[in-house]
Amino acid sequence: MDHGAMSDAMGKADEESGVSGARDPHAYSDGYTFDSLTRPVEADEMNFGMLLVDRFESVRTSGNTSLTYDLQGWYGRDYNRLVLKAEGDIDAGELEEARTELLWGHAIAPFWDTQLGVRQDSGVTPDRNWLAFGIQGLAPYWFELDVAGYVGDEGRTALRLDGEYDLLLAQRLILQPSLEADFYGKRDAERALGSGLSDLTAGVRLRYEIRREFAPYVGIEWASKFGGTADYARAAGLDTKETRAVAGVRFWF
């Protein structure tokens, strides 16, 4: 290596830039530059998209069978993207309860995004609209967490916690424990919701990935209602605790 030539090149770059210690980006290119070429597009300048249907399952309780879906899609770049979340229950061909969110996701750290947008609750009870904000990502030890707060009409507030973990029993056989909880700031009689902790659902699913993109599964869930929400359920003759057997498919593309 010609250290003398290198030193001359660096000195010339300092003179041209007027900054001591600056490096000439063309010093080692033998005069070739990108001036006559189209600048290459970096990975973080390209748009990508994904749709993950995490749950599309049949739910069996004592004396009833219903259908549940839970999906998330996004489109955009590494730092900013449009996010869609949707979850709902269909019973006897009718949409009983649904939550749909449209969010702007912004990366703030490796594996973590903040999210801001809107949420709509729909179904057989009156619709509710919310301003949504939260954080989603991968916690230490590979726990997937999704925590969101909501502000709605008439001073309504809500908090939702969602966590799950993938335990690899084999390369394609995966056990997935999960936990979901909903809190509400005030009572909403029209939707049969009390204030405080409303409901808690814990489950475990065992899936087999035929392909990484396609995996059938079976599992079991335990769901409980609490406080005023449990009071509304008792008044309507419904159970406040139930065990559910589930079977479905998880896929993404």
CATH top-level class: Mainly Beta
| Overall morphology | elongated
In which range does the helix fraction lie?
Answer: under 10%
Low-confidence stretches: none
Instruction: Give the averaged pLDDT, no decimals.
Output: 89
Q: Could you say what the CATH architecture is?
A: Beta Barrel
Organism: Candidatus Tenderia electrophaga
Region (Disordered): 1-25
GO cellular component, one term: cell outer membrane
Pfam family, one: CopB
How would you characterize the overall build of this protein?
It is a single chain. The protein has 2 helices and 13 strands, in the order αββββββββββββαβ. It has 253 residues and is mainly beta. It has a single domain, classed as Porin (Beta Barrel), CATH 2.40.160.40. Strand 4 and strand 5 (112-123) form a beta hairpin. The relative contact order is 0.11.
Short summary:
This protein is mainly β and 253 residues long. The chain has helices spanning 3-17, 227-235, and strands spanning 48-61, 64-76, 80-91, 94-109, 112-123, 128-139, 143-152, 157-165, 167-168, 173-184, 196-208, 214-225, 241-252.
Q: What tags apply to this protein structure?
A:
253 residues; Porin; 12-stranded antiparallel barrel; 59% strand; elongated
